[in-house]
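Fill in residues.
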């Protein structure tokens, strides 16, 4: 029995149509129909019923559907584990994250990992928005980024990460170690646009909307654009301290009254390869022993 038939079944249920499922799978409708009929013959039970309103599960189909989904999840885990094992035997793990954090913390970690455990790793700089997809696809084994809670992923916090104001050098708050949101209430405020797409940062969006007029809030594509606007005295930026470039021609000041937000490592919550188990354990010990803080 081919597992591909179950994949076809799930696509038919998702689209509620043989024709739409065939198009999504890049197959002929007759091929999809044959796969369903063949699966029903092998199991000896009717799985689908067809009507002018679409395609639906029979009572038998409803009963086996949870097991089918579990089977497909297991296949996904097996494929991802195979990717991880292949990388282990090639001696390379693929590690992603922002350029600043990777350079500041992870480069030295990977050097120590190679010397202590013989595991080699390749650093891959990724925009935040691409990390989830690359982890799912197996293009990355692990990523370092601000706290993220997503289905199928495990996040392990490693370093406390603070919000900071990005200020021009002649700003009244320049030279201060910290300031409150109330002290920039009359300013234009710029934040990364991915803040608004990050469920864990909903509290931050609500706080900004409460503290500032809507026409004073701006979402900006990336860090460099925020810094450029600040340098041109358009307003004040708010960013994570961990993603700031090392070379700076701007001033920072920590935002007080707002909780810090950890940076850590994120990876798919599946059975880990030996290399990944070693990497996770070594990384936690490394950060604890170094007492690293932003």
């Amino acid at each position: 029995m081919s597992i591909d038939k179950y994949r076809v079944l799930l696509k038919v249920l998702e689209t509620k149509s043989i024709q739409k499922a065939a198009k999504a799978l890049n197959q002929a409708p007759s091929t999809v129909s044959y796969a369903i009929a063949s699966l029903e013959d092998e199991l000896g039970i009717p799985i689908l019923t067809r009507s002018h309103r679409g395609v639906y599960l029979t009572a038998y189909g409803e009963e086996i559907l949870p097991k089918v989904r579990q089977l497909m999840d297991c296949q996904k885990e097996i494929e991802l584990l195979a990717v991880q094992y292949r990388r282990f035997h090639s001696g390379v793990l693929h590690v992603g994250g922002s350029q600043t954090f990777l350079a500041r913390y992870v480069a030295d970690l990977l050097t120590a990992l190679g010397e202590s455990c013989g595991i080699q790793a390749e650093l891959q700089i990724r925009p935040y928005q691409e990390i989830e997809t690359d982890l799912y696809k197996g293009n990355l084994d692990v990523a370092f980024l601000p706290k993220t809670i997503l289905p199928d992923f495990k996040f392990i916090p490693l370093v406390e990460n603070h919000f900071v104001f990005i200020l021009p050098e002649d700003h009244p708050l320049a030279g201060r170690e910290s300031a409150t949101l109330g002290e920039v209430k009359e300013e234009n405020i710029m934040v990364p646009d991915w803040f608004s797409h990050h469920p864990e940062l909903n509290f931050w969006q609500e706080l900004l909307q409460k503290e500032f007029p809507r026409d004073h809030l701006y979402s900006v594509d990336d860090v460099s654009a925020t810094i450029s606007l600040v340098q041109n005295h358009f307003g004040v930026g708010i960013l994570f301290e961990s993603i700031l470039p090392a070379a700076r021609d701007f001033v920072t000041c920590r935002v007080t009254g707002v909780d810090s937000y950890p940076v850590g490592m994120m990876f798919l919550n599946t059975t880990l390869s030996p290399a990944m188990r070693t990497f996770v354990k070594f990384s936690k010990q490394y950060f604890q022993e170094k007492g690293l803080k932003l």
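The mean pLDDT is 82.
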